[in-house]
Amino acid sequence: MLIAIDHGNKQMKTVNCPPFVSGLAESSTKPFGSNILMYRDRYYTLSNQRIPYKRDKTEDDRFFILTLFGIAQELQAKGIYGEMPQRIRLAVGLPPAHYGAQHQAFIRYFSDRGVVKFNYRGKNHAVYIEDVRCYPQAYAAAVTMMDRLVESPKVLIVDIGGFTADYLMMRSGRADLAVCDSLENGVIVLYNQIRTKANSEFDILLDETDIDSILGGKSGIYAPEVSALVERMAQGFVNDLTNGLRERMLDLSSGRVVFVGGGAVLLRRQIENSGKVRNALFVEDVSANAKGYEFLYRMETAGR
What we know:
- About 35% of the residues lie in helices and about 30% in strands.
- The protein is built from 10 helices and 14 strands.
- Strand 8 and strand 9 form a beta hairpin.
């Protein structure tokens, strides 16, 4: 069974199930609730408090545990569970700037673990990860919309994620990998800037869901000056991002620019209000990278 997972610093995404925050709570005793995963006599629940940014996700087992949550959700969505080991082919990805240095270690991180047994939501599972392939983010998202891009002479893909904003140039439907990189300028950076400023100016402690609510248009429950601060800083953040791309000789006012990722969806109004992007296309599907990993895996292994 092929399962593709996008290991975001903010959210984990699979192809068929809703995304969930990249956060874990661990306990030696069974906690309250039903959304519980037990692995190696430890109990894990998902948390809205995400794991602090990790450039190298292989430093500990937390992203492996999050992967088990993603695998379990995909299996149970198909009605698959039980003691019989399921053979899993895993498609994953990394930001373009990290891909060359880290993709082999990321593949090893999931490999050679034998049969992994765990319990999720009261049902037993056993999986054997028999193959792992890793692909660059942004490029993966681009292949899911190739039919819309092939006629355009120049398309810039901008994937705004949790900690990175990845970009890739497409020319007449072909990836120009010489113009493909990552900026450490994702929405987590914006969250930290806003939280610090709000605490300093208004003595208020905002969490990331508060900021998401304000940027999502649900600002009525917050003081007007707090909402105004969030909106202003978000606009400044987007302006800095577009200026950073411009410094890399990427002109957002010519050709088509395709924005993907949860950060792009969150900041759509600010991107449109920046006046820097003339022909923008927004991909609302935050699972675009995961779907791209799945597509690339099938293409790569089609001749086997």
